[in-house]
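Researcher: Good morning. I'm working through a list of sequences from a screen, and I'd like to move beyond sequence-only analysis. For each chain I'm collecting a predicted structure so we can compare shapes side by side. This is the next one on the list. No need for commentary yet; just the structure.
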Amino acid sequence: MSLAVHADKLSKVYPGPEPVTAVDGIDLEVPEGAIFGLLGPNGAGKTTTVGMCTTRVVPSSGRVTVTGLDVTEDPPMVRKRIGVVSQFNTLDRSCTVFDNVAFHCRYFGMGARPAKRRAGELLESFGLSDKASAMPETLSGGMAQRLLIVRAVAHYPELLFLDEPSAGLDPQSRIALWDVLLELHRSGTTIVLTTHYMEEADRLCQRIAIIDFGKILVCDTPEALKQQVSAETVVELKLQQPSEEVARPLRELPGVLRVELGDGVLRLFMRERDGLLPRVVEVAQPAGLRDISISEPTLETVFITLTGRALRE
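Model: Good morning. Structure tokens for this chain:
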């Protein structure tokens, strides 16, 4: 299997009176041609990991190769082979939409005519040709994000990095962005994205690494990760007084695999729910049952199982 990214014991420690370990000795393999997700809460180390892979952050220790090149030994060549979309809008506000793309092509060595042709083709493909003469500040959030991706892929990179690509977008723009990324993937582009949206990771990624406190907790396909929970149904009880005293009799109910207490709720992992929910409500009612929700295992369920807390904290 050819690897687009290979990290070996990669770490980043920010020095200071109290040093901060942002990434703590991770191993990571991203296959060529995949959409690979780094899923975790804010502050987990996702952005720092991408920063080291894209030459913007110097590793404290370990090694990472991108498209076969060591990022610390040959940063300019690595940058030629990758496209990067950061969390922030980095469009040149003094240039039109068209010139943002064309000048990027020129920066990477294209002649004037090929750069203009490439810019025009990409804006047409991404539904932005009618905005070619507009200034970036006039674009909606979704359009600006699409333009950032257009610019990032304009020089034909082998690998595209996106850091929280749909953060701040409305649901309609987020879905449109997913369609853009899936189309890029179908064209052969390897994509690495960071996200704390479980639906985004589940919808887009063939493989996912869940990261927290700078460590990779688990890495597999979304389906395999959800199977690790070993439950068909997850019931979340919001109680006025969630406690171990309430959890104990719930654990004894037939069909309940386990009960976890945390985040002001009780979570029950169950083989099935038919016939069991009335018993669950009966036991939980004296503790002040305020709400009950039922779902199948999700990537957030996997994270809660691994860490005991919600993904979005």
